[in-house]
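Practice problem. Given the sequence and the SMILES for NAP, write out the predicted structure.
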Amino acid sequence: MSQTKINPGGKTVFISGSNRGIGKAIAVELLEQGAEKVYAGARDPSSLDELKEKYGEKLVPVQLDVTDDNSINAAASQVRDIDILVNNAGVFAAGGIFSEQALSSLETNLNVNLWGIVKLTNSVLEQLRQPKETAIINISSVTGLANMPMAATYSVSKAAVHSLTQGIRGELANDNVLVMGVYPGPIDTDMAKDLQMEKDSPENVAKNIVQSLIEGREYVFPDVMSGQVGALYAANPKSVEDNFGKYV
Ligand SMILES: NC(=O)c1ccc[n+]([C@@H]2O[C@H](COP(=O)([O-])OP(=O)(O)OC[C@H]3O[C@@H](n4cnc5c(N)ncnc54)[C@H](OP(=O)(O)O)[C@@H]3O)[C@@H](O)[C@H]2O)c1
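Answer key:
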């Protein structure tokens, strides 16, 4: 178990997909809690204009498409001395296992949600593997713990993020890196706009993630629903599968 606890004060952060939703809320929360600099990754850097206007030099827009190797390499050479990497960028491509779009949605979900994290993390690993204390935060989902058939291929990608996070944690066990997996439930962002269920706010998710950094938590259930799922999963993983299985 990592002993690493990170206070955001004075830290330099690199966030993928920071122009909207959960990523934007994390950027704002870290800056409000004293982060020195946020390298704000976005496919279209002009989508960061409002944040840039508000935070000035503390917010550095970085063009970043996590499916594009050239973009990743250029971004990795632009960012310097990062303390915290937030792998947030993600997509939800709809598709059940037996649907017509099963393979194409699986490919899309894996390309962004899994390969994006593998490539981006590798590209800045040496900046994080340092004598100083650092953190890698991967945004998975409650659907990474048990598959939700109505979002089956997305769930597969998020389960892969869960496994990847464990692998990274194992590899970096002797380094001063807090490797955090975040498992949100439904959050009120563009991604979940068609979801008819109660949703927590991205701002609340961001607050809980930053508090978890300060406390050095490796598993984070950052909203009300995910807190319940996390407790159930700890007691009886099959019951989470049975519950989610009803969402076909
Ligand atoms: N909302 C939920 O209910 C929920 C629940 C569990 C987990 N999550 C996870 O939380 C993370 C953030 O999601 P969100 O709810 O904030 O969704 P969102 O509002 O749709 O935002 C997604 C972000 O990812 C970026 N992105 C998408 N594809 C990208 C690519 N190829 N390269 C770089 N950036 C890319 C988007 O950039 P553009 O603006 O350029 O598209 C956007 O900034 C995702 O990993 C998601 O799977 C969300």
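Check your answer against the key. The pocket of NAP is lined by residues 16-17, 19-23, 43-44, 47, 64-67, 88-91, 112, 139, 141, 184, 186-187, 189-192 (CB under 6 Å).
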